[in-house]
Amino acid sequence: MDNPPMNELSSPVLLEHLFRRQAGRTVSCLAGLLGFEHLQLAEDAVQEAMLRAVETWPFHGAPEKPEAWLFRVAHNHAISVLRRSTRFESKTGELIAALEARTESVEDVDIEQNLRDDELRMIFMCCHPDLAPDARAALSLKLVSGFSVDEIARIFMAEENTIAQRLVRAKRMIRERRLPLLMPHNVELPERLNSVLEVIYLMFSGGYATHTGEDLIRRDVCLEALRLGRLVADSSMAAPRVDALVALMALQAARLPARTDSAGDLVLLEEQDHSLWDDELITLGYHYFNRSIAGEEISEWHVQAAIAATYAKAKSSEAIDWPAILGHYDQLLNMTASPVVALNRAVVMVKVHGAEPALAALAPLEGHAVMRGYHLLPAVRGRVLAELGRLAEAEAAFSAALECDCAEPERRFLQRQLENVRAGWKESHLDRSSAQDTPHPPLPPSTCLL
Amino acid sequence: MPKYMLLLRDDRELFGKLGPEEMQKTIEKYFAWRNKPFVVDGAGLMEKTGRVMQKKNGSVSVTAGPYSESKEVMGGYYTIEAASFDEAVKLAADNPHVNFGTIEIREVGHRSE
After folding, report:
1. What is the pLDDT of residues A146-164, one digit of tens each?
2. Residue B8 phi/psi, 5° resolution?
3. What number is the ipTM of this complex?
4. Which of A26, A306, A308, A348 has a Cα-to-Cα distance from B11 of 20 to 30 A?
5. Best residue in A3, A51, A55 to probe B by mutation, most B CBs within 10 Å?
């Protein structure tokens, strides 16, 4: 008998997210060799490689080097498509030669560096300012990060069809505008880099936002955004604001394990068990935060990271330095004039100056276009009014918040608040602010949450 | 203990609907099943078709094939041990393949005592 018994031929455990990672890397690499016009060929080749894996590995086990296997099969498939097809005409020879120039995948250090550069170029192309803002994040998640259309739809709470169309339009735009897979030049670098940072944080926010259930995809996308941020921060595109964004994401991601309880309900930042916070991510966050303040630049990311660092520094909820946080919000509000920032600042004001001034700070936000239909404005108002003992108004505010679209855990949270107000607002809640543990988007929420 | 052969035919389109992460998770499910103690052996079949040999008019003819009408392609086989046909069916039902094609189960014959 040639085959050893099956149970002795135990398969190696695949690295977590190996397929996603390898899909992104291989598409980036092949598209880099073929050029932006042939993005589809690169994508098809990678899909073929993964299909062959799922068709053959179940019987033979995973190959010794699964990454290299997937790369090689995709690479070979792209070459055989080029040989068979007539649609590449006179370009065929040139394209095959381009592919044959890179036949290795992951083995040595130089190639690892090449792959990182391929990924970076792909990120910059996906985040090109010529593309629609809502398409950039979807495209990056698809091409660079290997997320499926279905997963992207779940992240942004959109229909699968909507995301699919968005991707098709973006890819058409890449061809029409001839958006190259090149690192941006000096003059355009700041704008291009800012777009990349916004997209990365948009991904992160998509994952961090409180959606229905404990969908694992949420954590995956947060960590992927963090990975991409570090990729940029540790590249030639590095800048203090990139470090600040990485710090912000790491410090916020550290709280993920504490944000929902076992029933999937929201746990307010102040009520979170700090021992559940991820120490490794906090250390990583401080590392990048320290790097970010080394330069002259102070960006919005810096201030947001400073807020996250202030929370992370507190050993317990009682130890949170609210006046410092309010100071950061003042600064952030000056920089952005964002109503979402103003809303978050009002929450912190309750802590520092009490409910009355906070209520006054909320007033100008009413009727703001960006705030229309945003459940957190009436939710915060309800909370502040309840603390002032204006229970009838608080009840109306919570009811109004429940009229808005929001995720199920938030709805349950608001429902509990409403019932609490109806029951006369129990004492135990008086000392809690309504600081929601949601990221403070630099963009208006309507565009930020798509 | 009786042996059963599972012939797995898969539909590529169904695998094609999976994203990268789902493909990986699916492969891991196959691995988990394959490593169970009742699995005796198994192998994948190369290419989509092979050759069919047949004696015609005194000489052996070899043709490519067999081609089937269905979209499903024989991808490989496993041999398992089970106490009965019912148990073999039950063990095969845990194989993730039931979501991506068909599993034909045949009892492997043996010389009677």
Report:
1. 999 999 988 888 899 999 9
2. -105, 120
3. 0.91
4. A26
5. A55
